[in-house]
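To whoever is on call:

I kicked off a structure prediction for a single chain this morning and the downstream step that reads the tokens threw a length-mismatch warning. I double-checked the sequence; it's 261 residues and nothing unusual in it as far as I can see. Pasting both halves so you can look.
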Amino acid sequence: MALGYKVDNIFTCIRIGFFFMDHDLIMRNLDRAEEMIEMGADYDKRNRFQIYKGFYNLAIRDFKSATNNFLGVVSTFTCTELMDYTTFIRYTVYAAIFTLPRRELEEKVIKAPDVLEVLYRAPDVKQYLFSLYQCEYAKFFKSLADVEEVFRKDYILNPHYRFYVREMRILAYSQLLASYKSLTLSYMAEQFEVTPEFIENELSRFIADGKIFGKIDKAKGIIIVNKDAMAKSELFKDVVRQGDLLLNRIQNLSRFLDNKL
């Protein structure tokens, strides 16, 4: 049997694994597919394999890997047996906005012509992406509620909707606080169109969890931002990102050398 047909058969097994959410079946066949593709599968099979990997990354809450896999094939998508292109871009935006720093998000998603073309047909995804990027926090909170409903109804994303929504709220709060040394709770509440009590409860919980760096002065009704801790957190994230990039390059080089030997 030709290599291409073998890879197609493996893709079918992976789809069956997705249907039953059989992680063992999916992982075994992803490994088989990778071996076959390294033997010399064509460009189309390689692209489709990245989408299968990215889809499984979503299923196991690895949004970072999903982002990397999806963004690499935005302009060459052909995996219509797994999902349509609009759904693919929706998944790509959900993963990218969660993982990419603001500048990378702008370069790889906000300004990507292929993404923008689809967003005109998916206004809910467009508002979700641009409202956070443009610091329109009230619109973002409303869009995030819509995203939560999408996650609830999606069998791949459903197990992660609470985690995802919580982390995106933290991201929005952190983005706003990053520009200030201190901020009144009433101003934050106004920006998000919620009550000051809601903001105070949210921030208190996230500060206690080590997710937001600052302290609340209840007497003055303000949050004082710990810029040093925030900077160290961003530095740590950057070090991890650079480490992941280096690891990926080493793994790619290792596979290349294995094929040559």
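Update from on-call: the warning came from a stale cache, not from the record. Cleared it. Sanity check on the structure: The mean pLDDT is 90.
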